[in-house]
Amino acid sequence: MVTAVARYVYPRRRVLRWALQRAAWAAFGLLTDLNVIGRENLPKGGPLLVVANHFSFVDPALMVRVAPWPLEFVGGFRMPNAPALATLIPKLWGFYAVHRGAASMEALRAGEAVLTQGGVLGIYPEAGSWATVLRPARPGAAFLAARTGVPILPMGFDGVPNILPRLLRWERAPVTVRIGRPFGPFRATGRGRERREQLERIGHEIMGRIAELLPVEKRGRYSPDPGVREAARAFEAYPWDDAPEV
To answer: Given 15, 27, 148, 193, which residue has the most CB atoms within 10 angstroms?
Structure first.
């Protein structure tokens, strides 16, 4: 029987990903005014779960630009908010696809195998980029954190949705990446409802750490401003709860 570690080799596509990472460096250097804060918080290597807010389809490319290690991803099977041409780069990079609204255990097994090998896995806990304020986490990131007990590295991406609108005006968008300190580990020891509640608490902790790296007005449910929290409710419904991706 082929083990999960043997099936989900880490790292992979080394040459192609090296070229794509160099392209990401060039693109963000040419098209944006990029400021990365907190580089001293980057660990030397894995195992590591990297989490960030997800406000734009460009976010994975930005994580690739910032990451100093071979990076694997768990991501959405479909990219409904991305132009057709923009979906080509994630396919070239390769990622383990999650069918939103479904269990997607295959992708979670792949993510766990990457972390078991000492790898670095990127995941966007919100599982979609339809809003520009933080939303509650879906269970995937918390599940992987609890299953593996690896450290979690939070990042906050600010200004990414402005890249394309500013380019249309021949301007470079200011983009800021804030890198927080690693935290964890976490474990979920309960069963059934108790375990689900434990994972939900871990998810809120993850989102709270990301929120600390964003402007107050973009923290959504995790903002100290009651008005921001109330306005964010309009974006918290998960579109795939009643219509899973197939």
So the answer is: 148
CATH 3.40.1130.10 given to domain 11-105+115-129+149-185: yes
Q: What phi and psi, each to the nearest 5 degrees, are found at residue 178?
A: -110, 125
- Beta bridge partner(s), residue 121: 49, 72
Cα separations in angstroms, 77 against 80, 86, 102: 10, 14, 11
Nearest to 203 by CA among 130, 127, 158, 143: 143
78-94 tens-digit pLDDT = 665 666 666 777 888 88
Q: Are 211 and 222 in contact (CB under 8 A)?
A: yes
**Whether the Cβ atoms of residue 197 and residue 139 lie closer than 8 Å to each other:** no
For residues 20-26, give the mean pLDDT.
Answer: 94
Looking at this protein, which amino acid is placed at residue 109?
R
Q: Where are the domains of the chain?
A: 11-105+115-129+149-185, 188-236
